[in-house]
From TrEMBL:
Protein name as it appears in the record: Uracil phosphoribosyltransferase
Cofactor: Mg(2+)
Domain Phosphoribosyltransferase: from-to ranges: 5-209
GO cellular component: cytoplasm
Organism domain of life: Bacteria
Source organism per UniProt: Agromyces agglutinans
Family stated for the protein in its record: Belongs to the UPRTase family.
Keywords noted in UniProt: Allosteric enzyme, Glycosyltransferase, GTP-binding, Magnesium, Nucleotide-binding, Transferase
Gene from which this protein is expressed: upp
GO biological process: UMP salvage; uracil salvage
A Gene Ontology molecular function term of the record: GTP binding
Amino acid sequence: MRVHVADHPLITHKLTVLRDVDTPSPVFRALVEELMTLLAYEGTRGVRVEPVDIVTPVSPARGVRIADPKPLIVPILRAGLGMLDGMVKLLPTAEVGFLGMARDEETLQPTTYAERLPEDLSDRQCFVLDPMLATGGSLTAAIEFLFARGAVDVTAICILAAPEGLRAVEQALHGREVTVVLGALDERLNEHGYIVPGLGDAGDRLYGTV
Ligand code: URA
C-alpha cells in the first residue's frame, strides 16, 4: 500500500478551520470541497492518459487526454458525498458510482446498505472518497467490493486518517496494491472509534445533524 500525506500549507490551513468545533456546516461543506480539489490533484497523479494530436494556433502539437475506460469515482455514502464535487471538478469526464456504508456504532463494523456500481470493473481505475479513515472497516469493505468486481487500480482519498485504520487496511489487503492519499495523518483513535484530534463526525458536520 502506498500512502501519500499531502503536505501543503494551504491544506493544513483549510484543515485547521475544518477541525474547529465552531466552524458551521455551510463553511465546513465549502472547505471540504476546496480541500478535495487539492487532494484530487495529489490523488490523480497516476490517472491514465493517452496521447492526442491537436493543432494550436501556431503549430501541430501532441498532448494527452484522460484514457478510456474513464476513471470511476466512488464516494462512500454518506460523508464521501461531500467530497464528490471537488473531485468531479478536476476529473469531469469520470463516471460516478455509489457505495453506501454505515458503521454499527456498537461493533464499529461496516455494513453495505446501498450500491450503484458497474457490474464489471476490470481495467477500471477507481477513486474511492471517504473523508475519515478511522478503524479502516468501511474503506476496506469498499476496496474489497471494487476488487471483487475486477478493479485492479484503486486510489483512496481521505481527509484524515488514524494510524490504526491505515494499518488495518494494509493488513486486510494482503499486499494488493492500493494508493491512499491523505490530508493529514492524525494521532490515534479514541475508545469510541473517533479520530483524535480529528474533526468529529464528518457526516454530521457536513449535513448539519450535530
Ligand atoms: N467517522 C467520522 O466521521 N469521524 C471520526 O472521527 C471517525 C469516523
